Amino acid sequence: MNTEQILSELTFKAVRSSGPGGQHVNKTASKVEVSFSLPTSEGLTETEKELLQKRLASKLTYEGIILLQCDETRSQHRNKKLVIDRLLELLQQNLKVNKVRKKSKPSKSAIEKRIKAKKEQALKKASRKPPKID
């Protein structure tokens, strides 16, 4: 993943935001929307594109574009930085390849310890019962 190339491919759009800010939000476009085209990106390899296409299927448009927006702050510049960070984090998280889990067995001593503890517990419970009268 080439971060600089990806940053150059981003398309930004500033729109008026809802939320806190009073009259300020009615006059300024502080909400930032970013779009990133996955299929046409040159910052990702073909295998990375396929992996992201599969993992981010619910977040992509039909054209394969990722759309994110941020209106957390009153500043357009801070919102832009936040949305860029969010996009890069999303890409990095979904490009991670999970380790393959190796099957393991408990050691003999651990098995013996567990069985011994079970027997002790059973003995303790059995000793609490009233004796059987035949």
From TrEMBL:
Xref: Pfam families: RF-1
PROSITE patterns, per the entry: RF_PROK_I
GO MF assignments: peptidyl-tRNA hydrolase activity; ribosome binding; translation release factor activity
Region annotated Disordered, chain positions: 99-134
InterPro entries per the UniProt record, alphabetical: Pep_chain_release_fac_I (IPR000352)
Hydrolase recorded as keyword: yes
Gene Ontology BP term (one): rescue of stalled ribosome
Sequence ranges of Basic and acidic residues compositional bias: 110-123
Feature: compositional bias, Basic residues: 125-134
Keywords carried by this UniProt record: Hydrolase
Residues annotated as domain Prokaryotic-type class I peptide chain release factors: 16-32
EC number, UniProt record: 3.1.1.29
Highest taxon of source: Bacteria
Protein name: Aminoacyl-tRNA hydrolase
Organism of derivation: Halomarinibacterium sedimenti
Gene expressing this chain: arfB
